[in-house]
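Form 7-S
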Amino acid sequence: MSNFSNIAGDVHFEDRVTFGNTVTLPPNTLGNSQVSDSDPIAANKVEHQFVFRHVQTEAAAIIAATEMVHICRGAGEVLDIEASFGSIVPVATEEITIKVVKHTGAVADDVMTNVFVLDSGNVVHTPEGQAGLDTAGKVTVAGDILEVQVTRAGAEVIARGLIVEITYKETPVD
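Output:
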């Protein structure tokens, strides 16, 4: 049978404290100042958050493109997708469609439930968020590849400059 001691109030220790069993700490107890540079936390114990970009220069018309932006190193998920035009918004007959796809081997799967369309209703240098982002069931595993696909429709090629940003979190493995 265990004997419990109850200490009411603050306790200050001048030296190291060793626990013979598991310690359960309340949330937000440990922060950066409690982690020593000489004894850091292993990478597989923390979530990493990244922003990947697909960029097309403002000096040229937006073109159809496919770009692989990340090789996943562990379990993760896409948190957000935003895009914006650079210098010129498309005319009414021009549309830029953006898809983010994850590849598991030869199998490709859309990360979004809806395609992301930028058109004449959007504003230059104003990020547009993706309303149809579907993270349920779209988690990644080590070895998956994230890819940005840009297509354009319309007879005129007016829109210039494009940035697509994907915010992604991942728990790497050793």
